[in-house]
Amino acid sequence: MRRAIALNAERWWECPSCHHQARTIRGGILTPMHRCAVMAGLEVPLVQVLHNGGIRSGDVRHVAVERGDMIGREQGVLVDSRGRAIQAVRTERRDGSNDVHVFAPVATATTTT
Amino acid sequence: MAWTNSKIFASFVVATIDRTLAFDFDTDSTLVALYNNSITPDNTVSLANSAYNVAQWATAQEQFQAGQWAQGGVALASKTVTAATTTITCDAADTASGSACTLSNVYGCLVYDNTTATKGGFSYNFFGGANQVTNGVLTVVWNAAGIFSFSVA
Fold first, then answer.
1. Which residue has the higher pLDDT, A28 or B13?
2. Across the interface, which of A30, A70, A85 has its CB nearest the CB of B94?
3. How many domains does chain B have?
4. Are B52 and B114 in contact (CB under 8 A)?
5. Interface predicted TM-score (ipTM) of this complex, two decimals
6. Does B141 touch chain A (CB under 8 A)?
7. Is residue B120 domain-resident?
8. Is A3 part of a structural domain of the chain?
9. Given an 8 Å threshold on Cβ–Cβ distance, is B137 in contact with A99?
10. B104 reaches A (C-beta below 8 A)
11. Touching check for B95 and chain A: CB below 8 Å?
12. Is residue B1 situated within a structural domain?
Protein backbone atom coordinates (compact mmCIF):
# COMPACT_ATOMS: atom_id res chain seq x y z
CA MET A 1 0.00 0.00 0.00
CA ARG A 2 1.34 3.40 -0.89
CA ARG A 3 1.20 6.19 1.59
CA ALA A 4 1.44 9.87 1.00
CA ILE A 5 3.79 11.57 3.41
CA ALA A 6 3.07 15.17 4.20
CA LEU A 7 6.24 17.16 4.74
CA ASN A 8 5.31 20.05 6.97
CA ALA A 9 8.23 22.44 7.21
CA GLU A 10 6.28 25.02 9.17
CA ARG A 11 8.23 26.29 12.15
CA TRP A 12 7.49 28.90 14.77
CA TRP A 13 10.04 31.32 16.17
CA GLU A 14 10.21 33.90 18.92
CA CYS A 15 12.62 36.62 19.96
CA PRO A 16 13.78 36.06 23.56
CA SER A 17 14.25 39.80 24.00
CA CYS A 18 11.01 41.34 22.69
CA HIS A 19 8.87 38.20 22.13
CA HIS A 20 8.21 39.04 18.51
CA GLN A 21 6.95 35.87 16.80
CA ALA A 22 7.38 34.63 13.26
CA ARG A 23 6.51 31.57 11.19
CA THR A 24 8.62 30.03 8.45
CA ILE A 25 7.62 27.37 5.97
CA ARG A 26 10.94 26.95 4.18
CA GLY A 27 13.63 24.44 4.90
CA GLY A 28 17.25 25.25 5.57
CA ILE A 29 19.42 25.41 8.62
CA LEU A 30 19.83 29.12 9.11
CA THR A 31 17.97 30.77 11.95
CA PRO A 32 15.76 33.72 11.00
CA MET A 33 16.82 37.11 12.32
CA HIS A 34 14.84 40.22 13.16
CA ARG A 35 15.71 43.78 14.07
CA CYS A 36 14.96 44.08 17.77
CA ALA A 37 14.20 47.38 19.52
CA VAL A 38 14.98 45.87 22.92
CA MET A 39 18.45 44.91 21.63
CA ALA A 40 19.17 48.47 20.53
CA GLY A 41 18.17 47.85 16.93
CA LEU A 42 20.49 44.89 16.37
CA GLU A 43 19.51 42.07 14.06
CA VAL A 44 19.19 39.17 16.49
CA PRO A 45 18.30 35.52 15.97
CA LEU A 46 14.89 34.14 16.80
CA VAL A 47 14.53 30.95 18.81
CA GLN A 48 12.41 28.05 17.61
CA VAL A 49 9.35 27.42 19.76
CA LEU A 50 6.40 25.07 19.72
CA HIS A 51 3.42 26.30 17.73
CA ASN A 52 2.68 29.69 19.26
CA GLY A 53 4.08 28.29 22.49
CA GLY A 54 6.36 31.11 23.52
CA ILE A 55 9.52 31.14 25.58
CA ARG A 56 9.45 30.79 29.33
CA SER A 57 10.99 33.81 30.98
CA GLY A 58 14.65 33.21 31.78
CA ASP A 59 15.04 30.15 29.56
CA VAL A 60 16.84 31.98 26.76
CA ARG A 61 18.41 35.40 26.51
CA HIS A 62 20.35 37.49 24.02
CA VAL A 63 23.68 39.00 25.00
CA ALA A 64 25.29 41.59 22.74
CA VAL A 65 29.08 41.23 22.72
CA GLU A 66 30.86 44.55 22.35
CA ARG A 67 33.81 44.64 19.98
CA GLY A 68 36.99 43.89 21.90
CA ASP A 69 39.40 45.69 19.63
CA MET A 70 39.58 49.15 18.13
CA ILE A 71 37.65 49.80 14.93
CA GLY A 72 40.44 51.62 13.14
CA ARG A 73 39.78 51.59 9.38
CA GLU A 74 37.54 48.53 9.47
CA GLN A 75 34.49 48.79 7.20
CA GLY A 76 31.12 47.35 8.14
CA VAL A 77 31.52 47.13 11.91
CA LEU A 78 28.05 46.79 13.38
CA VAL A 79 27.02 49.68 15.65
CA ASP A 80 23.84 49.55 17.72
CA SER A 81 21.47 52.44 18.41
CA ARG A 82 23.39 53.22 21.61
CA GLY A 83 26.55 53.77 19.59
CA ARG A 84 28.29 50.59 20.75
CA ALA A 85 30.36 48.55 18.28
CA ILE A 86 29.00 45.00 18.43
CA GLN A 87 31.00 41.97 17.28
CA ALA A 88 28.46 39.24 18.06
CA VAL A 89 25.17 38.27 19.69
CA ARG A 90 25.13 35.24 21.94
CA THR A 91 21.88 33.36 22.50
CA GLU A 92 22.32 31.83 25.93
CA ARG A 93 20.21 28.95 27.24
CA ARG A 94 19.49 28.00 30.83
CA ASP A 95 21.44 24.71 30.48
CA GLY A 96 24.68 26.62 29.83
CA SER A 97 24.78 26.07 26.09
CA ASN A 98 24.70 28.96 23.63
CA ASP A 99 24.60 29.91 19.98
CA VAL A 100 26.61 32.80 18.63
CA HIS A 101 26.07 35.01 15.59
CA VAL A 102 29.34 36.72 14.69
CA PHE A 103 29.10 39.86 12.54
CA ALA A 104 32.03 39.85 10.14
CA PRO A 105 33.25 43.20 8.80
CA VAL A 106 33.87 43.42 5.06
CA ALA A 107 37.42 43.27 3.69
CA THR A 108 37.90 46.07 1.20
CA ALA A 109 40.32 47.33 -1.43
CA THR A 110 40.35 50.54 -3.41
CA THR A 111 42.00 51.08 -6.77
CA THR A 112 43.62 54.33 -7.74
CA THR A 113 44.50 55.55 -11.20
CA MET B 1 51.10 41.06 17.79
CA ALA B 2 47.75 39.70 16.80
CA TRP B 3 45.26 40.53 14.16
CA THR B 4 43.20 43.68 14.23
CA ASN B 5 41.50 44.13 10.87
CA SER B 6 40.01 42.57 7.72
CA LYS B 7 41.93 42.60 4.44
CA ILE B 8 41.98 41.32 0.86
CA PHE B 9 45.22 39.56 -0.09
CA ALA B 10 47.26 41.52 -2.63
CA SER B 11 48.48 38.19 -4.03
CA PHE B 12 44.89 37.26 -4.89
CA VAL B 13 44.53 40.41 -6.98
CA VAL B 14 47.91 39.89 -8.68
CA ALA B 15 47.24 36.21 -9.37
CA THR B 16 43.86 37.04 -10.84
CA ILE B 17 45.35 39.66 -13.15
CA ASP B 18 48.38 37.69 -14.34
CA ARG B 19 46.74 34.25 -14.11
CA THR B 20 49.32 32.90 -11.69
CA LEU B 21 46.45 31.04 -10.07
CA ALA B 22 42.97 30.48 -11.45
CA PHE B 23 40.93 31.89 -8.57
CA ASP B 24 37.18 31.48 -9.06
CA PHE B 25 35.22 32.73 -6.06
CA ASP B 26 31.72 31.77 -7.11
CA THR B 27 32.47 28.48 -8.89
CA ASP B 28 35.29 26.87 -6.92
CA SER B 29 34.92 25.41 -3.46
CA THR B 30 35.48 28.44 -1.23
CA LEU B 31 36.05 27.59 2.42
CA VAL B 32 35.94 29.55 5.67
CA ALA B 33 38.49 28.43 8.26
CA LEU B 34 38.45 29.84 11.80
CA TYR B 35 41.52 30.99 13.75
CA ASN B 36 42.55 32.05 17.24
CA ASN B 37 44.48 35.18 18.20
CA SER B 38 47.98 33.71 17.98
CA ILE B 39 48.49 34.89 14.42
CA THR B 40 49.49 38.15 12.79
CA PRO B 41 47.91 38.22 9.35
CA ASP B 42 49.51 40.27 6.61
CA ASN B 43 47.73 40.87 3.32
CA THR B 44 50.99 41.63 1.47
CA VAL B 45 52.44 38.13 1.83
CA SER B 46 53.19 35.91 -1.15
CA LEU B 47 50.48 33.81 -2.74
CA ALA B 48 51.99 30.73 -1.09
CA ASN B 49 51.82 32.32 2.34
CA SER B 50 48.21 33.43 1.89
CA ALA B 51 47.19 29.79 1.60
CA TYR B 52 45.43 27.56 4.06
CA ASN B 53 47.79 25.59 6.32
CA VAL B 54 50.79 27.74 5.44
CA ALA B 55 52.57 30.34 7.62
CA GLN B 56 50.01 32.31 9.69
CA TRP B 57 47.24 30.02 8.49
CA ALA B 58 48.79 26.84 9.85
CA THR B 59 46.44 24.32 11.37
CA ALA B 60 48.10 24.79 14.77
CA GLN B 61 46.18 28.07 15.13
CA GLU B 62 42.96 26.85 13.52
CA GLN B 63 39.81 26.52 15.60
CA PHE B 64 37.65 23.60 14.53
CA GLN B 65 35.56 20.71 15.77
CA ALA B 66 35.05 17.58 13.72
CA GLY B 67 31.49 17.24 12.52
CA GLN B 68 30.63 20.79 13.55
CA TRP B 69 33.07 23.22 11.96
CA ALA B 70 35.41 20.96 10.06
CA GLN B 71 39.17 21.38 10.00
CA GLY B 72 39.90 23.18 6.76
CA GLY B 73 36.69 25.14 7.00
CA VAL B 74 33.03 25.23 6.02
CA ALA B 75 32.08 25.88 2.41
CA LEU B 76 30.45 29.13 1.41
CA ALA B 77 27.02 28.70 -0.17
CA SER B 78 24.99 30.87 -2.55
CA LYS B 79 28.07 32.82 -3.63
CA THR B 80 27.70 35.91 -5.76
CA VAL B 81 30.02 38.32 -7.54
CA THR B 82 28.28 41.54 -8.49
CA ALA B 83 29.29 44.87 -9.92
CA ALA B 84 27.22 47.93 -9.07
CA THR B 85 28.61 51.09 -10.62
CA THR B 86 32.08 51.37 -9.04
CA THR B 87 31.81 48.63 -6.40
CA ILE B 88 32.48 44.93 -7.00
CA THR B 89 31.15 42.76 -4.21
CA CYS B 90 31.80 39.10 -3.39
CA ASP B 91 29.19 37.71 -1.05
CA ALA B 92 27.54 34.49 0.12
CA ALA B 93 24.89 33.20 2.47
CA ASP B 94 25.74 33.29 6.15
CA THR B 95 27.94 30.36 7.17
CA ALA B 96 26.88 28.12 10.06
CA SER B 97 28.35 25.27 12.05
CA GLY B 98 26.57 22.10 13.05
CA SER B 99 24.05 22.28 15.86
CA ALA B 100 26.34 20.97 18.64
CA CYS B 101 29.43 23.05 18.13
CA THR B 102 31.76 23.98 20.99
CA LEU B 103 34.56 26.39 20.17
CA SER B 104 36.32 29.24 21.92
CA ASN B 105 38.86 31.89 21.01
CA VAL B 106 37.42 32.36 17.55
CA TYR B 107 38.88 35.69 16.44
CA GLY B 108 38.43 35.60 12.70
CA CYS B 109 38.56 33.58 9.52
CA LEU B 110 40.49 32.90 6.34
CA VAL B 111 38.41 32.75 3.15
CA TYR B 112 40.27 30.70 0.56
CA ASP B 113 39.95 28.82 -2.71
CA ASN B 114 40.04 25.13 -1.87
CA THR B 115 39.77 23.96 -5.48
CA THR B 116 43.15 25.27 -6.56
CA ALA B 117 46.24 23.28 -5.63
CA THR B 118 47.75 26.27 -3.83
CA LYS B 119 44.60 26.95 -1.74
CA GLY B 120 45.31 30.66 -1.96
CA GLY B 121 43.46 33.15 0.23
CA PHE B 122 40.93 35.70 -0.97
CA SER B 123 40.64 37.59 2.31
CA TYR B 124 40.79 37.39 6.05
CA ASN B 125 38.00 38.79 8.17
CA PHE B 126 38.61 39.82 11.78
CA PHE B 127 35.64 39.34 14.13
CA GLY B 128 36.69 42.05 16.58
CA GLY B 129 37.64 39.85 19.52
CA ALA B 130 37.14 36.43 21.09
CA ASN B 131 33.96 34.54 20.32
CA GLN B 132 32.75 31.29 21.78
CA VAL B 133 29.94 28.80 21.30
CA THR B 134 28.95 25.96 23.63
CA ASN B 135 26.93 23.03 22.30
CA GLY B 136 25.18 25.30 19.83
CA VAL B 137 25.46 26.93 16.43
CA LEU B 138 28.18 29.37 15.44
CA THR B 139 27.01 31.51 12.54
CA VAL B 140 29.20 33.95 10.66
CA VAL B 141 26.89 36.72 9.50
CA TRP B 142 28.48 38.26 6.44
CA ASN B 143 28.24 42.00 6.11
CA ALA B 144 25.60 43.61 3.90
CA ALA B 145 28.54 45.00 1.91
CA GLY B 146 29.85 41.48 1.27
CA ILE B 147 32.70 39.28 2.44
CA PHE B 148 35.09 41.41 0.45
CA SER B 149 34.64 44.20 -2.03
CA PHE B 150 36.59 46.44 -4.39
CA SER B 151 36.02 50.07 -5.17
CA VAL B 152 37.11 51.26 -8.61
CA ALA B 153 35.81 54.79 -8.15
1. B13
2. A30
3. 1
4. yes
5. 0.96
6. yes
7. yes
8. no
9. yes
10. no
11. no
12. no
